[in-house]
Amino acid sequence: MQILKEKVIHDEKCSYLEERLQSTHYQVIDDCTIEHCSTLIHQGWRRFGAMFFRPICPHCEACESVRIDVKKYNFSKSERRVLRKNEDIDIYVGHPTISHEHLALHERYHRFMQEKKGWDYTPTTTQHYYSSFVHGHEDYGHEVLYMYKNKLIGVDIIDFLLDGISSTYFFYDPAFEKRSLGKLSLLKQIEFAKEKGLDWIYLGYYVKDCDSLNYKADYQPQETLQGRPDLHQHTIWK
To answer: What is the C-alpha separation between 145 and 150, in angstroms, rounded?
Structure first.
């Protein structure tokens, strides 16, 4: 394992809140072990490909790292309905791959979210998709493919770590919006974790005033990371 690059970038456009700037700590790690990846995620970092990052904005704490307590989580009646409604969907779990289907689905999803929620739109490219979701997956990085009648309708990028699942990114076919596939993907993660005896679903950042992220508060019980611990500091979740 080797840190190939490390940098802090200040005054970028905030990814979550309009009219704010963000400071971000980045590391590019080659051959990151599951032990080190688990530690970084536990301390509030996120992984996309070989790149790990976390916000370190000096005057803002809007980004809160949250995790679902799997062992105490009970599915609600509405969540069980979502699971039953989608029993005709085939689900496959494996290491991340890339195909024309992946790229086309990613493109459709982002055009849809641009119209629905005003997301910034960047055309999907093979290089960007590979570097974000396929490269650096090691043994712990996986994709969950959701198929309906042999058609790819959803892709969930996750890491199976030592104590839980890191929920990285999910995108789906807008034609199946009424299926609640985003909720389904998270419920399936909880099922996977329960089956494997894992304690947590690491959801990444919850930002109260960001419409794209505030859904995370619905999944209780959960804990929030306290502060921004460094690698050798004691980590507290409450």
So the answer is: 11
Q: So where are the chain's domains?
A: 2-63, 67-224
> How far separated are the first and last CA of the chain, in Å rounded?
31
Beta bridge partners of 151: 148
pLDDT 10s digits, 147-168: 999 999 999 999 999 999 999 9
CA angle 180/18/68 to nearest 5° reads 40
Token pair for 95: 């290491």
Q: What is the pTM of this model?
A: 0.95
pLDDT tens digits, one per residue of 15-55? 899 889 999 999 999 999 999 999 999 999 999 999 999 99
pLDDT at position 44, please?
A: 97
* CA distance linking residue 153 with residue 144, whole number of Å: 11
Q: Please say whether the structural domain 67-224 has been given the CATH code 3.40.630.30.
A: yes
**What are the structure tokens assigned to 80, written together?**
């069980």
HEC sequence for the chain: CEEEEEEEEEEEECCCCCCCEEEEEEEEEECCCHHHHHHHHHCCCEEECCEEEEECCCCCCCCEEEEEEHHHCCCCHHHHHHHHHCCCCEEEEECCCCCHHHHHHHHHHHHHHHHHHCCCCCCCCHHHHHHHHHCCCCCCEEEEEEEECCEEEEEEEEEECCCEEEEEEEEECHHHHHHCHHHHHHHHHHHHHHHHCCCEEEEEEECCCCCCCHHHHHCCCEEEECCCCCCCCCCCEC
And the tokens for 182? 């985003």
